[in-house]
Amino acid sequence: MSGNSGCVAFVDLDDTLFSSLRRQRLAEELVPAATLIDGSVICYTNPAQRALYGMLVAAANVIPVTARNIAAFRRVQLPFKGVTICSHGATILRPDGHIDREWGQAMEAPLAAARDALKDFVAMAGRLVDSRGGSLRTWLVDDGGDPAYAVIKHPAHDYEAIRSVADTAVADWLRANPGFRLHVNGNNLAVLPPGVGKAVAVAHIVTRLRDQGLASVVIGAADSNTDHEFLDQCDIIIMPTRSQLGDSLRHGVAEWEAARASV
User: Fold this and answer.
1) Per-residue confidence at 133, pLDDT binned at 50, 70, 90?
2) Counting C-beta atoms within 10 Å of the first and last residue's C-beta, which end of the chain has fewer, N or C?
């Protein structure tokens, strides 16, 4: 098959096509896949991830869908030739690597409307950091303009600490700022503004491709629970078994089986 066959694949990157060393099985043959600003390797592919990548690029027009901003995406070592969705959907890159200005204009209003609230979130998170003795990191993510979203991470990858923060201070902030959405997966906590998201960007591209007759089948691949929003735009989905989505599927099936057994 050819990547021009009408098959389109929207593919999350981190923990789908590659993962940090912490999330890999060290016995597997690992190959560097992404670096930090200083050039040190931060993510690797395992044999299954490399096979998935090879299968998709051979059969489909592969469109990365990532929370990484442009700078972080450009440190990914896997080659992609087409459109890319960055910054949780706030930015779309054209195949030539330049920003899609039409989409950028569509995002100007929601990002501008969220600017002060996101800054307030970071200030709140900063006070939380101080109260915890600097055990958290927080910042805003952007692509050179207004922030696309806010992030909190734990330097020691304390997932329980992140979950606790999400359930307390962040939950209170979200109740006071309706429309903002929470993403939590492992050590990653992000708050996204209204009108911004992977699903919005994916829906835009799917519509464009189908209008051009270039999307006879749409595949989605991802690992996070919140990715279900963009996966809903797809005809077929792929998920890693060792992932948040995989865990949720197993939990849901177990609950269904328990309910059926009790009837």
Assistant:
1) low
2) C
- Is the backbone of residue 94 left (phi > 0), alpha (psi -120 to 50) or beta? beta
Task: Map tokens 């992140």 to a residue.
Answer: 162
Does residue 99 contact residue 106 with C-beta atoms inside 8 Å? no
C-alpha–C-alpha distance, residues 20 and 42, integer Å: 6
For the record, the structure tokens of 103 come out as 């989409």
Question: Do 84 and 204 share a domain, yes or no?
Answer: yes
**Residue 263 placed within a domain:** no
Residues paired with residue 150 on neighbouring β-strands, in sequence order: 140, 191
- The domain tally of the chain equals 2
Nearest CA-CA partner of 64 in 174, 227, 194: 227
The residues that bridge with 192 in the sheet, in sequence order, are: 181
**Can you tell me the distance from the alpha carbon of 122 to that of 1, in angstroms, rounded to the nearest whole number?**
47
pTM strictly above 0.85: yes
Residue 263: band (very low, low, confident or very high) from pLDDT cuts 50, 70, 90: low
| HSE value, Cβ hemisphere, 13 Å, CA-based, for 41 | 13
Tokens of 233: 């735009």
Q: Are residues 11 and 86 in the same domain?
A: yes
CB atoms within 10 A of CB 200: 20
